[in-house]
Amino acid sequence: ATIRNEMFDLEQAGYLSQFHTSGGRVPTDKTYRYFVNSLLEGEANLDLGAEYKNKIKRAIGGAPSDPREINKIVARVLSNLSENLVITGISQDEDFFKKGLAGLFEHPEFREAGKVFQLASFFEEFEEMFKFIEREFFNTLGMPRGVPVQILIGGENPFKQIQHETIMCAKYGLPGDYIGSLTLVGPTRMDYEKNISLIKYITEELNKII
């Protein structure tokens, strides 16, 4: 009875939702935001395992000095390690590299035809959306070195095609005074601690290049 009462209180406060009468309760965007804010407040305690660090160092350490090639490597290694979709770009350019779309469709949330259509629409319009991200979010991050990860959860997204997903964005330095950016897209139930740590470590290693 105590658990039922507490679950009811959480639902009334907007932290849990129940899509079907016979179904279980699931966390809401408000719950994930509370959790993510707690992680970011304790960011100094976030640590990535040695295995992940070594994979990132090997990938980036063997990268050429070409910013576009570095972005390809960033998209590939981050997508592989996070098991989410990653899009990398250069702020002064309009070349984007996307990795992990097939893996994203392996998640249960993306197996419905409607979800596939929405994601396809998101990609078709990504160039314009990227400009919006640059204008609305990246310009609040300051200089690339040491910037935080910007996170938009579910309904916080301004893009209606992915308002049930989470977006993580970050900037980093590239050779030749270029500024690189990455956008990670995944389900709202993603492993936030792991993904924040991955992005934080990758951007730190990239900033060492310059």
Description:
With 210 residues, the chain is α+β, with helices and mostly antiparallel strands. A 5-stranded antiparallel beta sheet has the order 4-3-7-6-5. Strands 1-2 form a two-stranded antiparallel sheet. α3 packs antiparallel against α4 and α4 runs antiparallel to α8. The longest helix has 18 residues. The protein is globular. The termini are far apart. About 3% of the residues have low confidence.
Mean pLDDT, all residues: 81
Strand order of the largest sheet: 4-3-7-6-5
Order of helices and strands: HEEHHHEEHHHEEEH
**Largest sheet entry:** 5 strands, antiparallel
List how many beta strands DSSP finds: 7
Envelope shape: globular
Percentage beta strand: 15-25%
Radius of gyration: 18 Å
Helical segment count: 8
Residues in helix, %: 40-55%
Structural class: alpha+beta
Low-confidence stretches: 141-147
What is the distance, rounded to the nearest whole angstrom, between the alpha carbons of the first and last residues?
A: 59 Å
What's the quick description here?
The protein is α+β, with helices and mostly antiparallel strands and 210 residues long. 46% of the residues lie in helices and 18% in strands.
